[in-house]
Automatic annotation (TrEMBL):
<feature type="transmembrane region" description="Helical">
    <location>
        <begin position="12"/>
        <end position="32"/>
    </location>
</feature>
<feature type="transmembrane region" description="Helical">
    <location>
        <begin position="196"/>
        <end position="215"/>
    </location>
</feature>
<keyword id="KW-0812">Transmembrane</keyword>
<feature type="transmembrane region" description="Helical">
    <location>
        <begin position="294"/>
        <end position="314"/>
    </location>
</feature>
<feature type="transmembrane region" description="Helical">
    <location>
        <begin position="235"/>
        <end position="265"/>
    </location>
</feature>
<keyword id="KW-1133">Transmembrane helix</keyword>
<protein>
    <submittedName>
        <fullName>Uncharacterized protein</fullName>
    </submittedName>
</protein>
<feature type="transmembrane region" description="Helical">
    <location>
        <begin position="165"/>
        <end position="184"/>
    </location>
</feature>
<feature type="transmembrane region" description="Helical">
    <location>
        <begin position="44"/>
        <end position="63"/>
    </location>
</feature>
<feature type="transmembrane region" description="Helical">
    <location>
        <begin position="127"/>
        <end position="145"/>
    </location>
</feature>
<keyword id="KW-0472">Membrane</keyword>
<feature type="transmembrane region" description="Helical">
    <location>
        <begin position="272"/>
        <end position="288"/>
    </location>
</feature>
Length: 329
């Protein structure tokens, strides 16, 4: 209990520092007007959404769920679906983290919040691009270690559980945003993202069929998150009981939805219908398999589903529209 008290005391000091940092940024934004470069609306929306995802991830990291754990308990939380041989690789990381959990968790909180603030306030300039580079490095580090390659090496990997991993998707988005605006326009990067998403959803649907996962039977329970938040836990438990009773029907439905969304994204015809269906689907994924991000995690806490839905938003419809400033010019 004293560990949690010490953690919150240090966090309060850091919070005061961040309060003044945010205040200074807001003051600068209102006093110093900087003309934004002309850019495609899809790129601008992706940048803003990405910054918001980082900011909320930092806020989610505030919860002390990975501060009070022993090495073995943290391993169970982070790697409960991973093969034993892979978990053994992370022994030194777990020992390193649990030696000074307050320090490392506060650094993770501070880094993610600062990256979120910088991305939301420094768009398409040197500071923004440096923030993107740092975000890419951090994201892929999270993907390799705390996320264990997004569960790709586990026989229980699924889009429901967040595969291919928030760190991988976030790192890829960071690289895409580092591509110059002129190339975004000439190559229509948003359209290529659309194609990539369709392929990813198609592969997710095919992978959901794999018989060795046991998702057509009792092992479907492995897809559901374990959250420390009681209300979320109750909702997830209810959904899991339903899944155990109708595992064949539910897993078949997941396959059909993934393949259907892949087709709809590729065709890119009725954007409104696509956004409603995909929004409902990814919200279900985010709640059931990722616990709304409110689960023990180290970095990229907001998880995969919000990032994939953000990519669908910016890559569907007319992807050639520019921002209002660009049209006005």
């Amino acid at each position: 209990m004293s560990l949690v008290s010490d953690y919150y005391q240090v966090l309060l000091d850091i919070g005061l520092f961040l309060f003044f940092v945010i205040g200074a940024k807001v003051a600068i934004l209102f006093t110093i007007r900087v003309k934004r470069p002309h850019t495609m609306r899809s790129r601008s929306m992706l940048w803003t959404g990405f910054g918001a995802w980082w900011l909320i991830s930092g806020l989610w990291q505030v919860f002390p769920w990975v501060v009070t754990k022993s090495s073995d308990a943290l391993a169970r939380d982070l790697y409960h679906n991973q093969p034993a041989w892979l978990v053994a690789w992370y022994h030194y990381f777990l020992t390193f983290w649990t030696a000074k959990p307050i320090t490392w968790n506060i650094l993770a909180v501070t880094f993610q919040i600062l990256v979120g603030i910088m991305l939301l306030t420094e768009k398409d300039n040197l500071a923004g691009r440096i923030s993107l580079v740092l975000a890419v490095i951090f994201s892929w580090s999270v993907w390799v270690v705390p996320e264990a390659f997004g569960s790709l090496l586990s026989s229980y990997s699924s889009l429901v559980t967040g595969t291919p991993g928030a760190g991988f998707i976030a790192g890829s988005i960071g690289l895409l945003l580092l591509v110059p605006t002129t190339i975004w326009e000439s190559a229509n990067i948003a359209r290529n993202i659309n194609r990539g998403l369709a392929i990813l959803l198609g592969l997710a649907g095919v992978w959901q069929l794999n018989p060795w996962s046991g998702f057509f039977g009792p092992n479907i329970a492995r897809m559901f998150a374990v959250s420390p938040v009681p209300r979320i836990t109750h909702i997830i438990h209810t959904m899991m009981q339903f899944a155990l009773s109708y595992s064949v029907a539910l897993n078949s439905l997941l396959v059909i939805i993934c393949l259907g969304l892949a087709f709809m994204v590729w065709k890119n015809n009725s954007r409104a219908t696509l956004l409603i269906i995909s929004g409902a689907f990814f919200l279900w994924l985010w709640l059931s398999g990722e616990g709304l991000g409110l689960i023990p995690a180290i970095g990229c806490n907001m998880s995969t589903a919000p990032l994939l839905f953000l990519l669908i938003i910016i890559s569907t419809g007319d992807t050639t529209i520019k921002t209002r400033d660009a049209n006005a010019s």
